[in-house]
């Protein structure tokens, strides 16, 4: 067995990695001022670090009032969706080197939800839309099976993509329809409806489809693909929405 | 200040908290207080699976699972509790499937299972396929499924509410839980929740280490709240270091990677686990594998210019298998290291992962005030608790199991208690402790910074109480922690506002970490033996004569106000398994 080698990565690691970058952050604190302002911070950072590491350096070393949500720091919990250089991303999954650190890195809250302080937005309307699509398995069994329900690997695969959703709101808050009309369910809620509509064990697809047939439902989607681009989990969001639209027409799922 | 009244209050909305909430909400008026939105909890970061002897793919039974759990815990496990864990595992998995969890499936449509560290057929003969899984996203699926079912059941959540104090009232000479005090992040308002029953399900405290798989938010808030009120913490010296964290970052790469056939190699390409664990090899228990990795590194066989890591090699596995079974961890390697796992091995090192110790409970989730006395109305489940089903070292896939089995049990027990118990009077000025703590921090003019103290704490913990420990290193840690605790009194924050003051909360969280780090180090110093995750180089053997017992740590406050940790011990419950030498 050949010895595994990692020459390239380790050679890079051996050099002094730090560069100076500018974070240009949209600040807002109604306790201080009614207006949001841009503020620049200059810091030394290894370009292989995350945008979240940069925000932490600012909060921990420069300005403790900078406010943002975060938890797991590796793209699983969905806390730190924000607009970085004009695109919705997770701060913990975006490396400095991948977003051109030679220019100021702009960081703003996600759009379409009320900003509460700095990068923190009101997530309640987002979660309300999620709850509205009945995001839980519904079956008509009167007698629960003693063992697990059977499901073929193909049936399980059918909705695999939409089970990956971490409810970070990167998709919904990238959607121009959602920006203009907060009543629209938004991509994330439709993704979570899709997850159940196409689950062979579920028996409430018709109800969910009727909910999404509403004037604020799937038909508002203009297929701009912003949501697919924004999803940090690589979910084909626009495709999922299209499948729900198709199911509404054909009533097959 | 606002006062709320609920039958049952649950602190934390990860797996254990939400599993408890589903039961509790059906039976009593329940509020869930959580410092994060429920789906942000770190249960979602668990990857590899949930153990249960379903025997869907090969012969297995709960008795083998019980034995593996006890042996994995180096015989410090309470055997009655382990038996419950393994028996109820089966219904626990089936319940989740019925709630909608999308498990991977076998060709005949049942739940698929795979190998995991320390899980064996017939008491150690060979690895067994016991882990029920959904790719490498099992924790994510459990968290989502439980949240979905909380939505279905109409569970009432108070999101971004930080519980900062446990209220206890003495009634006829008995200390009873009266409720909790919480801080609302959005407004800075303080809320008192009077409750007949309180369940702590607030997770671990791994953030006192630097290289850790834990979220920034895992700061031991629940453990600290009850410890400060004079209740004990059990077995805090036992902390698990997961063998495969991403080098320097600590991000978890599931043991399922080795369950799927992944191999650990040193700089010579040698499959070194064959030397340390001839039968289970790369699938030995986590404490064994982590020590083996550091032994390789110390003996000069580590990889890279500094020889400070080893490789997790997946390159011999078909890309289709990696895509289907390990999609997330292979993406982590690509995103954070720029490495393609199809063709290149992944640099890894052990990462601080899981607290085996915590708030002592019995098998109903009732919190203990000492070795035997229950605190009426107080419950705990999940990583915050110590039942003890994990003993000195938890087996992989037993934590997702623990949160479901004991989350459910605590939810039922607490709600049934609420149905028959009366409210206990709140103590006088119930919020005073929290008001004082918050005001002190908000108005402090001290010169110490939270980030500096936290960094020094994490560095001393990594250097001195990690995989290998000695009297000398632990004493160094104890002294450093005492220094940091003294400096913490002089800490100041910059954000003086009320709205979303995360600066303030980080300071409070640091206080919790410092307190728990002290308990951990003092407990470790006194345990002069090596057992499971606690390895003393100056006492390299297990000592069943003197240390087959649980540590119980209590906070003592002297007349002059000085704080110290008092240690006591509790017998281990042994039923059918006599301690044996532990080999893999």
UniProtKB/TrEMBL annotation, chain A:
<feature type="domain" description="4Fe-4S ferredoxin-type">
    <location>
        <begin position="155"/>
        <end position="177"/>
    </location>
</feature>
<keyword id="KW-0001">2Fe-2S</keyword>
<dbReference type="InterPro" id="IPR009051">
    <property type="entry name" value="Helical_ferredxn"/>
</dbReference>
<comment type="pathway">
    <text>Carbohydrate metabolism; tricarboxylic acid cycle.</text>
</comment>
<dbReference type="GO" id="GO:0022904">
    <property type="term" value="P:respiratory electron transport chain"/>
</dbReference>
<dbReference type="InterPro" id="IPR004489">
    <property type="entry name" value="Succ_DH/fum_Rdtase_Fe-S"/>
</dbReference>
<dbReference type="InterPro" id="IPR050573">
    <property type="entry name" value="SDH/FRD_Iron-Sulfur"/>
</dbReference>
<keyword id="KW-0560">Oxidoreductase</keyword>
<dbReference type="GO" id="GO:0051537">
    <property type="term" value="F:2 iron, 2 sulfur cluster binding"/>
</dbReference>
<feature type="domain" description="2Fe-2S ferredoxin-type">
    <location>
        <begin position="19"/>
        <end position="113"/>
    </location>
</feature>
<dbReference type="InterPro" id="IPR025192">
    <property type="entry name" value="Succ_DH/fum_Rdtase_N"/>
</dbReference>
<dbReference type="GO" id="GO:0051539">
    <property type="term" value="F:4 iron, 4 sulfur cluster binding"/>
</dbReference>
<dbReference type="GO" id="GO:0008177">
    <property type="term" value="F:succinate dehydrogenase (quinone) activity"/>
</dbReference>
<keyword id="KW-0411">Iron-sulfur</keyword>
<dbReference type="InterPro" id="IPR001041">
    <property type="entry name" value="2Fe-2S_ferredoxin-type"/>
</dbReference>
<dbReference type="InterPro" id="IPR017896">
    <property type="entry name" value="4Fe4S_Fe-S-bd"/>
</dbReference>
<comment type="similarity">
    <text>Belongs to the succinate dehydrogenase/fumarate reductase iron-sulfur protein family.</text>
</comment>
<protein>
    <recommendedName>
        <fullName>Succinate dehydrogenase iron-sulfur subunit</fullName>
        <ecNumber>1.3.5.1</ecNumber>
    </recommendedName>
</protein>
<keyword id="KW-0816">Tricarboxylic acid cycle</keyword>
<dbReference type="GO" id="GO:0006099">
    <property type="term" value="P:tricarboxylic acid cycle"/>
</dbReference>
<dbReference type="GO" id="GO:0046872">
    <property type="term" value="F:metal ion binding"/>
</dbReference>
<keyword id="KW-0004">4Fe-4S</keyword>
Automatic annotation (TrEMBL), chain B:
<feature type="binding site">
    <location>
        <position position="221"/>
    </location>
    <ligand>
        <name>FAD</name>
    </ligand>
</feature>
<dbReference type="GO" id="GO:0009061">
    <property type="term" value="P:anaerobic respiration"/>
</dbReference>
<keyword id="KW-0249">Electron transport</keyword>
<feature type="binding site">
    <location>
        <position position="254"/>
    </location>
    <ligand>
        <name>substrate</name>
    </ligand>
</feature>
<dbReference type="GO" id="GO:0005886">
    <property type="term" value="C:plasma membrane"/>
</dbReference>
<feature type="binding site">
    <location>
        <position position="353"/>
    </location>
    <ligand>
        <name>substrate</name>
    </ligand>
</feature>
<keyword id="KW-0813">Transport</keyword>
<feature type="binding site">
    <location>
        <begin position="12"/>
        <end position="17"/>
    </location>
    <ligand>
        <name>FAD</name>
    </ligand>
</feature>
<feature type="binding site">
    <location>
        <position position="242"/>
    </location>
    <ligand>
        <name>substrate</name>
    </ligand>
</feature>
<dbReference type="GO" id="GO:0008177">
    <property type="term" value="F:succinate dehydrogenase (quinone) activity"/>
</dbReference>
<dbReference type="GO" id="GO:0050660">
    <property type="term" value="F:flavin adenine dinucleotide binding"/>
</dbReference>
<keyword id="KW-0285">Flavoprotein</keyword>
<feature type="domain" description="Fumarate reductase/succinate dehydrogenase flavoprotein-like C-terminal">
    <location>
        <begin position="454"/>
        <end position="584"/>
    </location>
</feature>
<feature type="binding site">
    <location>
        <position position="394"/>
    </location>
    <ligand>
        <name>substrate</name>
    </ligand>
</feature>
<dbReference type="InterPro" id="IPR015939">
    <property type="entry name" value="Fum_Rdtase/Succ_DH_flav-like_C"/>
</dbReference>
<dbReference type="InterPro" id="IPR014006">
    <property type="entry name" value="Succ_Dhase_FrdA_Gneg"/>
</dbReference>
<dbReference type="InterPro" id="IPR037099">
    <property type="entry name" value="Fum_R/Succ_DH_flav-like_C_sf"/>
</dbReference>
<dbReference type="GO" id="GO:0033765">
    <property type="term" value="F:steroid dehydrogenase activity, acting on the CH-CH group of donors"/>
</dbReference>
<comment type="pathway">
    <text>Carbohydrate metabolism; tricarboxylic acid cycle; fumarate from succinate (bacterial route): step 1/1.</text>
</comment>
<keyword id="KW-0274">FAD</keyword>
<keyword id="KW-0816">Tricarboxylic acid cycle</keyword>
<feature type="modified residue" description="Tele-8alpha-FAD histidine">
    <location>
        <position position="42"/>
    </location>
</feature>
């Amino acid at each position: 067995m050949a010895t595994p080698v990692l020459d390239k990565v380790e050679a890079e690691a051996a050099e002094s990695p730090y560069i100076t970058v500018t974070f240009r952050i949209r600040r807002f604190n109604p306790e201080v001022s009614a207006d949001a302002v841009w503020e620049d911070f200059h810091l030394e950072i290894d370009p292989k670090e995350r945008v979240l590491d940069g925000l932490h350096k600012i909060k921990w070393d420069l300005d403790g009032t900078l406010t943002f949500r975060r938890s797991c720091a590796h793209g699983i919990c969905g806390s730190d969706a924000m607009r970085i250089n004009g695109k919705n991303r997770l701060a913990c999954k975006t490396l400095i080197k991948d977003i051109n650190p030679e220019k100021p890195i702009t960081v703003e809250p996600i759009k379409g939800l009320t900003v509460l302080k700095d990068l923190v937005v009101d997530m309640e309307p987002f979660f309300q839309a999620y709850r509205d699509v009945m995001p839980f398995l519904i079956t008509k069994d009167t007698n629960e099976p003693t063992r697990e329900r059977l499901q073929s690997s193909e049936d399980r695969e059918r909705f695999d993509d939409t089970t990956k959703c971490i409810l970070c709101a990167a998709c919904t808050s990238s959607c121009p329809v959602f920006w203009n009309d907060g009543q629209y369910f938004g991509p994330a809620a439709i993704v979570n409806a899709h997850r159940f509509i196409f689950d062979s064990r579920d028996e409430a697809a018709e109800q969910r489809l009727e909910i999404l047939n509403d004037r604020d439902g799937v038909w508002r989607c203009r297929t701009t693909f912003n949501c697919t681009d924004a999803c940090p989990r690589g979910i084909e969001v626009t495709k999922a929405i299209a499948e729900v639209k198709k199911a509404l027409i054909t009533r097959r799922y | 200040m606002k006062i709320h009244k609920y039958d049952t209050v649950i602190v934390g909305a990860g797996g254990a908290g939400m599993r408890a909430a589903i039961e509790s909400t059906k039976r009593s008026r329940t509020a869930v207080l959580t410092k994060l939105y429920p789906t942000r909890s770190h249960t979602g970061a668990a990857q590899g699976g949930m153990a249960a002897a379903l025997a869907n793919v090969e012969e297995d039974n709960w008795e083998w699972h019980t034995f593996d759990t006890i042996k994995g815990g180096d015989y410090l496990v309470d055997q009655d509790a382990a038996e419950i864990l393994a028996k109820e595992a089966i219904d626990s998995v089936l319940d989740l499937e019925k709630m909608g969890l999308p498990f991977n499936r076998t060709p005949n449509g049942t739940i698929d299972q795979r190998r995991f560290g320390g899980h064996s057929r017939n008491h150690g003969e060979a690895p067994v396929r016991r882990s029920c899984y959904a790719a490498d996203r099992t924790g994510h699926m459990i968290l989502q499924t439980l949240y979905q079912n909380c939505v279905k059941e109409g569970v009432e959540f108070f999101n971004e509410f930080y519980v900062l104090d446990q209220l206890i009232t003495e009634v006829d000479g008995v200390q009873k839980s009266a409720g909790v005090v919480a801080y609302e992040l959005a407004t800075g308002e303080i809320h008192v929740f009077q409750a007949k029953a309180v369940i702590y399900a607030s997770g671990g405290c791994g953030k006192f280490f630097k290289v850790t798989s834990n979220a920034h938010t895992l700061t031991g808030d629940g453990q600290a709240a009850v410890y400060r009120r004079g209740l004990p913490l059990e077995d805090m010296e036992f902390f698990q270091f997961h063998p495969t964290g991403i080098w320097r970052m600590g991000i978890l790469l599931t043991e399922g990677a080795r369950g799927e056939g992944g191999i650990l190699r040193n700089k010579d390409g040698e499959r070194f686990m064959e030397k340390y664990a001839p039968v289970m090899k790369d699938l030995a228990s986590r404490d064994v594998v982590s020590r083996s990795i550091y032994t390789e590194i110390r003996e000069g066989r580590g990889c890279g210019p500094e020889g400070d890591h080893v490789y997790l090699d997946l390159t011999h596995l078909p890309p289709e298998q990696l895509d289907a079974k390990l999609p997330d961890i292979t993406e982590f390697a690509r995103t954070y290291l720029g490495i393609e796992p199809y063709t290149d091995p992944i640099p890894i090192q052990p990462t601080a992962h899981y607290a085996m110790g915590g708030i002592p409970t019995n098998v109903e989730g009732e919190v203990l005030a000492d070795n035997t006395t229950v605190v009426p109305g107080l419950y705990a489940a999940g990583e915050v608790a110590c039942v003890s089903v994990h003993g000195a070292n938890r087996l992989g896939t037993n934590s997702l199991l623990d949160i479901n089995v004991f989350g459910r049990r605590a939810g039922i027990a607490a709600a049934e208690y609420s149905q028959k118990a009366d409210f206990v009077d709140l103590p006088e000025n119930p919020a005073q402790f929290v008001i004082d703590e918050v005001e002190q921090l908000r108005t402090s003019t001290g010169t110490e910074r939270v980030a500096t103290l936290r960094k020094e704490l994490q560095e001393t913990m990594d250097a001195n109480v990690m995989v290998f420990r000695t009297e000398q290193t632990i004493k160094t840690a104890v002294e450093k922690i005492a220094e940091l605790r003294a400096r913490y009194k002089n800490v100041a924050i910059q954000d003086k506002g009320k709205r979303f003051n995360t600066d303030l909360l980080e300071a409070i969280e640091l206080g919790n970490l410092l307190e728990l780090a002290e308990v951990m180090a003092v407990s470790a110093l006194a345990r002069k033996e090596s057992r499971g995750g606690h390895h003393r180089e100056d006492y390299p053997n297990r000592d069943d004569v003197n240390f087959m017992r649980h540590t119980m740590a209590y906070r003592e406050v002297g007349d002059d106000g000085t704080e110290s940790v008092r240690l006591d011990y509790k017998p281990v419950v042994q039923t059918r398994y006599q301690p044996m030498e532990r080999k893999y």
